[in-house]
Amino acid sequence: MTPDSAAEPSREELIALVTAQAAEIATLKAQIAELERRLGLNSSNSGKPPSSDGLNKPLRVKSLREPSGKKTGGQKGHKGETLRQVAEPDTIVDHFPPACATCGLALTPDMATSHSARQVFDLPTPAPLVVTEHRAHDCCCADCGAQTRAAFPEGVNAPVQYGPRLGAIVVYLLHYQLLPEDRLAQLMSDLFGVKLVPATIARMSQACAKRFRGFAEAVCERVAAAAVKHMDETGFRIGGKTQWLHVASTALLTFYRVCAKRGSLMANAVAGIVVHDHWKPYYTMAGVRHALCNAHHLRELQALIEIEKEEWARKMHKLMRRACHAANLARINGVPLKPRLIQRFERCYDAILKDGLAFHEAQPPLAAAAAKAGRKRRGRQKRRTGHNLLLRLTVRKEDALRFLSNPDVPFTNNQAERDGRMMKLRQKISGGFRSNDGARDFAIIRGLFSTAKKHGWNVIQTLAQEPQFLINSLRSA
Q1: pTM of the shown model
Q2: Res 230: pLDDT
Q3: Is residue 225 within 8 Å of residue 462, measured between CB atoms?
């Protein structure tokens, strides 16, 4: 026996080595597949925001909507908006020809026989502030000689102060147009000659939020009691830390709430149907039914089509789009979907899920993640992304298809996502909030603005109204 032969591994050792290497290769392949999947995700096939696509944003070559068969552009009967002449203009400027175009004779205004008119719509020249002095006079009683002073109007509390109209403009620019405080102060100086400092702007915002806090509470109660409401949540940077903004809304109402924890849901007694994105804490809400956002499902299915090339996902994607189109047509015509059509969609839904589950159950199991030294691996066997979606669509079938049987339930949760979009834009512009109080004030005022726009109210005029009058004017449907 040579010295080299003593170092050669035995057959059993070679088998163990090959087995270990095969397991390691399988793990590495799974990791590579996961990384490639992440690189293939974008805003069109996942929940990633469009801003994360960067310069590699995919071309928008198709829509998730079914074609309606109508021509593009404004439809017949659509009320257009165009600039038209008014019967009584504010200012009239007459122009007369100086001389005859034929013989050169001088012409005078008395020779005018007719005219043609063109109107120019423009803004008036910005004017300085109007100063109103309130004088509370002292009067001496002719009988007893006592002095009595008149009361100042409500809201006139200081020797010098800004009026409610200026405060409404400042709050509108700050919280609706989302101007940073420094730029807002510069704008007010350029247009009106008003010198505002950030502390004054902050006080106006605080006073507005305090005034409309009762309005926000009334909106919250109405949203909680609505037959169908939409809920969503998003991260909010406050004081350098991530907190959470919760959105609860309907087609006419919007309520925002700032919380330190993501799972802090509405404290009010919530009834009816909640439309959401399948975040599990929503299923802990008692006394409600659920409807899932199928826009999320379509994006997840799109990723499975593009990356994993799974056939069942393509079929389900097509089915859900057709179901959405049928539900939209029925809603436009004011009629419910026929029960036989609903049953047909459900049978196709079940058949596709059955094929998808059979496909995934036939796949080899994924390699388990290596456990830490000295510890036993815990938890269920890891499943593929498509398998997880299949199980969710199976368990939550009633919630995913609720839009078919209830015309009031939409196909997506876009209402809540649209209502939360401007809140994220505010964070992108200014980076976040310094304090919880500032974030809560912003939530109250933005909720007021969103509700006002949904009701068709003028935002600046809304700020000047009494909160109780607005509460009495609220509509729930």
Answers
A1: 0.81
A2: 96
A3: no
